[in-house]
Design goal:
single chain, mainly beta, 8-stranded antiparallel sheet, 5 helices, disordered N terminus
Length: 250
């Protein structure tokens, strides 16, 4: 699957963008960040977490801190969604898990941190979108409000960022994208003290919705990205995580 849409779609979208681009001259201070080689460069490769345990959530009432642990996951995702395929900047997720007073498994979400990644071809999917100030496009994953680390469930929204797009523009804005992640193979213990475990995972079954809340560019942007897309989507990643029990944190 190509990283950008086919070139034949470019002229139509460029025409649609003509008026907004004229107005974008007023946004020169913002659009300047989209100069080639500057916008949203991905962090250096690697999945080891440097976030520490500052995002560990409070525990439920009545649980044993020694039997609950805070886990910090760092992943380097690769995303294919519609007609765009690219490596995303690393994400860090923190959550707590352990037995509830009734003996069932419990978990509490902590936080997610991510950074934008530039989409090749920008808004137009053409060289103009790649290099012209104001026509750049970036994508940033955000927590969608649902997670189940026992089963591999996770929901995400994908914020779409550009000087020509409103702040609310996103894939999964009204209903986040649900992932059911599967392990690609066995986990590997890299270190015992501190504990560091590496693994790989993927999901190729999720449905990718169309962009929403993107103003007059909502329709053209959906066509440029090839969304919605019911099939052909893939998220895969190499990840590592570390953990501490809550009695150690206290």
């Amino acid at each position: 699957m190509s990283e950008t849409t086919a070139a034949r779609r470019g002229p139509s979208l460029v025409r649609r963008l003509a008026a907004p681009v004229a107005a974008a001259a007023l946004l020169a201070g913002v659009a300047g960040v989209w100069a080639s080689g500057v916008a949203y460069s991905a962090p250096a490769a690697g999945t080891r977490s440097a976030a520490g345990f500052g995002d560990c959530p409070a525990l439920p009432e009545g649980v044993d801190p020694a039997r609950w642990r805070c886990e910090v996951h760092t992943a380097a995702p690769k995303l294919t969604m519609g007609e765009v395929s690219l490596p995303l900047a690393p994400i860090t997720m923190t959550h707590a898990e352990g037995p509830l007073p009734d003996g069932t498994n419990g978990q509490v979400w902590g936080a997610m941190h991510s950074a934008p990644t530039a989409v090749p071809g920008g808004l137009t999917g053409t060289p103009a979108g790649e290099h012209a100030p104001g026509l750049g496009l970036a994508i940033r994953p955000e927590y969608g409000g649902r997670s189940d680390f026992y089963t591999g469930g996770l929901s995400l929204r994908f914020r779409l960022l550009s000087p020509l797009l409103p702040r609310g523009c996103a894939i999964g804005a009204s209903e986040p994208v649900d992932f059911r992640v599967k392990r690609s193979g066995p986990s590997k213990w890299v270190s015992q003290d501190p504990p560091v475990i590496e693994f790989s995972a993927y999901d190729d079954t999720f449905t990718a919705p169309a962009p929403e809340h993107c103003g007059p560019l909502t329709g053209p942007l959906g066509r440029r990205l090839g969304l919605p897309a019911a099939t052909g989507n893939l998220m895969s990643y190499d990840a590592s995580y570390t953990f501490k029990t809550y009695d150690q944190l206290i």
